[in-house]
Structures are given as structure tokens and as C-alpha cells.
Amino acid sequence: EVQMVESGGGLVQPGGSLRLSCAASGFTFSSYLMHWVRQDPEKGLVWVSRINNDGSIKTYADSVKGRFTISRDNAKNTLYLQMNSLRADDTAVYYCGRDFNYKIDVWGKGTTVTVSS
Amino acid sequence: QSALTQPRSVSGSPGQSVTISCTGTSSDVGDYDYVSWYQQHPGKAPKVIIYDVTKRPSGVPDRFSGSKSGSTASLTISGLQAEDEADYYCCSYAGIYTFVFGTGTKLTVL
């Protein structure tokens, strides 16, 4: 079964850091580009970042550029999102997603990040 | 990277058709045929129902269809069913390996 499971979310103070992980299974992880997408009740779905299959090309939304870093370990079938200098407006459910020809065809169930003092 | 504009809500009765618009710019929707639509039920992850503007993944009913004119994409759901009640989001490739989602539309089946 193709699936992805996010972990690493939690409560963090403003200015703090978190690293999210997304464990993939049931498909050849190294063959696919991957995304992080977040969702909060106010803004709906917001694209955060994308990485190509070998990790050499990474892109980010302007709102997270310079603070978040996407990476992957193809040997461990795992996608990561390092989040630094967290702000209250980073509070959201974070989903990882598999890219197949410019669409996200498989989504994880999400992990919740809350930034609050 | 401004969000694509969608109506906040639409509604229709069972059996009717509804159309949800998704307005972008010449840098995203207007420039690429990589518009996808996602259906999200409460508490669930999104699910792709339309990609490449008009294509449906296998298993998605043909009641769902997509189109595009200029910088506006549209999702039409015909023969509305109760299970279609959900949130719908469009998404477009925006160049240089970036993407942008729409603001989201809540569909109510009356």
C-alpha cells in the first residue's frame, strides 16, 4: 500500500525550531518529487516547499524562504522539513505529498504544528 | 505568490450542477496547463480529482470536470450527490518549480 506518515509536530515557542519527517512506503521513493503543504483554518491549503527526486533542486514559498529547509534521505525513504525561527502564523497541519506530473497524487495524514508561548 | 481566488462557498441541490471558479494570473493559471483540483472532506487529507486542467484520475467519477479560459480555471460537478459536500481547492504550477493553491471553496449540498 502506498502511504506516507508525517511525524515531528508539536507545540513550540515563537522563535523555536522543529523538524518534521515524512516516512514513505509502498513505492520507489527516490523516483518522485515531493512536497510539503500546510493548512490552517484561516488560509486553507498553502504550498510550502518542493524537492526533486535526488534532492538537488529545492523551492520554497516566499513566506518560509530562509527559515525552512526541505531535504530527503532516499536510503531511508524519508522526507524532512527543518523549520527555524517559527512564528505564530506557521501554526498549521503540515502534509507531505508525492508529486506525479505536477499534481500531488498521494498525501499523508498530516502532523500538527502549534507555535505559541 | 498570491493565493488563487475561489468563491468562499457554493451550494446546490442533489442532481444539480455547480461550478467553482479559480482565478489566477498570467504567471500561474494563465501560463501553464498544470491546474489541479483537490477535494477535502472534514478531518481528511486532500484528494486529487482533476489534474492538467481537464484530466481525471482513475476512480474519480465523470461527474467531475475541469476547464480553463485565460487565467481562470473552473471545476464543474454535475449530478450533485450528498457525498460531494466537501471543501475544494485548485492548485496551479507557478513556474520555477513553485506552486500556488486557491483560497478554497466550501460546497454545500442542500
Written description of the protein model:
The complex is a heterodimer of chains A (117) and B (110). Chain A is mainly β and 117 residues long. Helices cover 0% and strands 55% of the residues of chain A. Chain A has no helices and 11 strands. In chain A, strands 2, 4, 5, 6, 9, 10 and 11 form a 7-stranded mixed β-sheet that branches. In chain A, strands 1-3-8-7 form a 4-stranded antiparallel β-sheet, with no helix packed on it. In chain A, a hairpin with a 3-residue loop joins strand 4 (33-40) and strand 5 (44-51). Chain A is globular and about 40 Å long. The mean pLDDT of chain A is 96. With 110 residues, chain B is mainly β. Helix content of chain B is 0%, strand content 44%. Chain B contains no helices and 9 strands. In chain B, strands 1, 3, 4, 7, 8 and 9 form a 6-stranded mixed β-sheet that branches. Chain B has a 3-stranded antiparallel β-sheet with strand order 2-6-5, with no helix packed on it. The model of chain B has no long low-confidence stretch (mean pLDDT 96). The chains are: A mainly beta (117), B mainly beta (110). At the A-B interface, strand 5 and strand 10 of A face strand 3, strand 7 and strand 8 of B.
